[in-house]
Amino acid sequence: MKWDATPPDDPPAAELEFNFRSGRLCLAFVATVGERWRRNIERLRDPADLARWYREAGLLDETVTVTVTPAGLDTARAVREAVHRCAKALIAGRPAAEADEALINAAAAAAPLVPVLRRGAARLTTPATGAESAALSTVARDAVDLFTGALAARVRECESPECALLFVDASRPGRRRWCSSAACGSRDRSAAYRRRRRAGAPG
Fold first, then answer.
1. Which of the two ends of the chain, N or C, has the fewest CB atoms closer than 10 A to its terminal CB?
2. Residue of 33, 76, 81 lying closest to 51 (CA atoms)
3. CA dihedral 40, 41, 44, 49 (to 10 degrees)
4. φ and ψ of 139, to 5 deg
5. How high is the pLDDT of residue 180?
6. H-helix segments, the chain
7. pLDDT tens digits, 166-177
8. Are 80 and 100 in contact (CB under 8 A)?
C-alpha cells in the first residue's frame, strides 16, 4: 500500500522537524507524518530524510551510515502506516488488520541492528549485509513488542484537536490525556479557560 502525504505547498522548515515526544521508537516513526488530522505533512520526503531520522532517533550514531534507497523509503512508509493503523485499532479496542500485521512482520523478519560495545557504552551498528532492512527491522520489532507487551494498554492518542500524536502513557495513574502537558495540555487548558470566560461574559 503506497502512502501519499504530499501537501499542496512546501511547509515551513519547522514543520518538517522530527517529533520524538511519543516515548516509543515505533510511535515516533509514525510521527514522521505531521498533522494527520488535516494536512498529512510528509517528513520523510526523500531517502536522506529517513537515514537522518534513524540517526536522530538514536538508532545510529555518526560513525554508522545507512544508505536508504527509493524502494526502501517506500517500504518504510508502508510499514509506518501499518504501525499507525495497528495502534489506532489497539486504542479503539478492535483487532488489527491482518494485512497491516503482515507488513510489520515482514519488516521485523529481517536481521535487526546489532548491539556492540564502544568505550564501555552500548551502541547499535549495522550487520555485515542488509543495513537498510536492519534499521527498519529494529523499528518493526519495537512495534511488535509494544503491541503485544505490558504497555499495549498504555498506547494513547493525544486529545488535543490540533495534535493527535500517538504516545505511550508512562505516568503512574495511566490517565494522561495529552502527549505533553506543557505543550498540548497547556494549550487545551488555556482554550477551555477562554471558553468559560466567554460563556460567563455579560451579553
1. C
2. 76
3. -170
4. -65, -45
5. 73
6. 25-30, 47-56, 70-92, 98-108, 131-148, 186-200
7. 999 998 888 888
8. no
